[in-house]
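Archive entry: two folds, one per protein. Generate the first.
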Amino acid sequence: MSRIALIQLVVFCIWSAAIYSAHSGELLIVRGDGQYAPYEFTQNDELVGFHIDLIQKVAEQANIEITFKSYPWKRSLHMFKIGEADAITYLGKNPEREEFTYYLEDNILSYVHNSFVVPKYSKIKYEGNLENLIGYEIGVVRGFMYGDAFANADYLTTHEVNRREHMVAMINRGRLDAGLLNPLKLRNKFTETDQLEGLKVLEPPLRGIANYLGFSKSRKREEIGTLFSKHMAEFKKTSEFKTLLKEYGLEQL
C-alpha cells in the first residue's frame, strides 16, 4: 500500500469513527412485516433474506449496531416519516418520500421487476403497451410503487389489496383479471409452495424500480447514511457480495 493510500485509509477510518460516535447506539431499521422472499422473510422465526444479510454485513463493516423491527408496511412508513425510526428497508423513491428520506444511490438494495400475472386460461394479450389492458381489473398492493408509466396510466382500472397473497387468491378465483407482481417472490427456493401454479406471467415486465435503504431526515441521519453508503459501495465490489447473490438465487441486483 502506498503512503498516500495509507493516509487516505487512516483519514477515512477517523471520519467513520467520528460519525459513529456522533450517532452512538443502535440504528433502528423498520420494514414491512410481509414475506418477501428471497429479499426479506422469516424462516424458523428468524428474519433473513438478501436485503437483511446485506444490511447486516455492511453494518458490521461500518461498525454500526442495528436492530430490525417489522410492522405492517403503512405503519413502518409512517414511523419512519415522523422520525420514530432511523432507516427503512425496501423503499421505493418518489417526490413525496424524498421530503423525509435521504436516498443515496449506493444504498440501493435491489431492483424489483414487476410483471402482469394472469390465469393460465386468460386471453389477455400484452406486449408492453399498457393500453392493451384497458377494460381489465388489475390488482395492486396498497402502498407499493410500480413506476411512473403505470402510475400515470390513469385509464387503467386497479383494485388495491393489502397483501400479495390476497391478490394471488383473487386472480385464481377469477375476481381479478390480472395482478401486478414480482414473479421472483412467487416462485423461488424459499417459498413452500409454487404460487405461480395455475398462473402465467405476461412479458415484458415493467421497468425495474430501485429499492433503497432509506435514512431519516427527521432524525438527521444523512451523515450515517453516507457512511453506510460508502461501506455498501465497497462491499458490492467483493466476492462475498457475489456469493450472497448466489445464495439467494439472484444473478444481480
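Generate the second and append.
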Amino acid sequence: MAGLKHSWIGRNQVVRRTLDSSPTLTHLLEDGYRLFLARISGPEAEADATDLTARLQNVRQRLQPRDFNCDEQPIILLAAGWRSGSTLLQRVLTSDPNTMIWGEPFAKSGITTTLASQLSAFTAEWPPLDYFVANQGDDLSAAWIANSYPDPAQLIAAHRAFFIELLAKPTQGLGRSRWGFKEVRLGGAHALYLKLLFPKARFVFLVRDPFAAFASFRHYIKSDFHAWPERPIRWAGEFGRLWRELALDLERVAPEVDALWLRYEDYLTDPALHEKLCLHVDADLRPPSELSLIPSAGQVGATQTAKPENRLLWYERRALKRALGDAGARLGYVH
C-alpha cells in the first residue's frame, strides 16, 4: 500500500512540511490513511472477487490466441442441483464405450470452484505488468523482483494440466479415449472457466422440475453441501434458492458456451432430444429407455423416486415457491 507521503495528499507542500517536522504525527497520519484506504479497498476487493465472470474476462484479455490451443474435447454435464436426473444422463453418456464421464469427482473438495477462485483476483490493474518476469529485464539480480510472475498463460496451462492429469489420464487407463464429468454444484461462471481451459468442450446443461427434484432429495434423510463446509442444504427453502441460483446462472451462459439445454422431463419423453444429444456430443448413445432404473442410496426403492410429487407437505411447497420466485415459471415449471 502506498504511504501517505507518496500519495496525492503527501505531495501538498504544507502537508509535506508538517509530516517532515514530526515523525510521530507522520506515523499517526499514515495509520489513519491505511484505515481509510482499507475501508475503500475492502468492499471493492470483495465485489471484484464475487464477480468471477468479469474476472475471467480480465484473464482472457491477457492471453494470446495461441494460449487457447487445446485439442481436448471433454463432455461437461452441469445440472441445477441434486436429484435432477444428472446420474441417468451421465449413464447415457457413458454408454458410449469410448467415453468416461466422472461423477462429481471429490465433490467436498470443490475442485473446480477452488481452482476457478484463483482467477477471481485478476482485474484490469492486477497483476501489474511490472510483476511479470518478462518485463523485469535480463539482469534479475539488479531488478526489484519481490513480485516476479510467469506469464498468465502458464497459469492457465497449469489449470488445464490438472484436469488432464486427474480425469483424462485415468480415462485412458480404463481403455477409453474421451473423458468428461458431471457436476450438480457449479454455476454459469464455472462453465465459462471450463470453456476458457477447454475451448472445444461440449457442454450439456440439465434442469428438472424443482418440486420433483426436492421431493426426491428430501428422502435422503440427510443434508448436503453446496460448498463444503459453509453452505449446507437442509430444507426446502435452501434447496429452492440453490436451484434458482444455478438454473438461472446456467441459462445466462448457455449461448456463450454453446451448451445443449435439456429439461429432464422433456428428455425422457422426446426421442428427438436424445438424437440432439448424440449429435451435440458426437457419440452414439443408448436412449434412457434402454437403461434400468437404479435406486439411489437412501431411497426406499425405485418407485419412491418415480413418484412425481412424492407427497410434499404444504409448508415445503410454500417454502419452495417463495425461494424460487419467478425462476420456475421462467424455465417452464408452473406450480
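Annotation attached to the second fold: Residues 11-47 form one domain. The chain has a mean pLDDT of 89.
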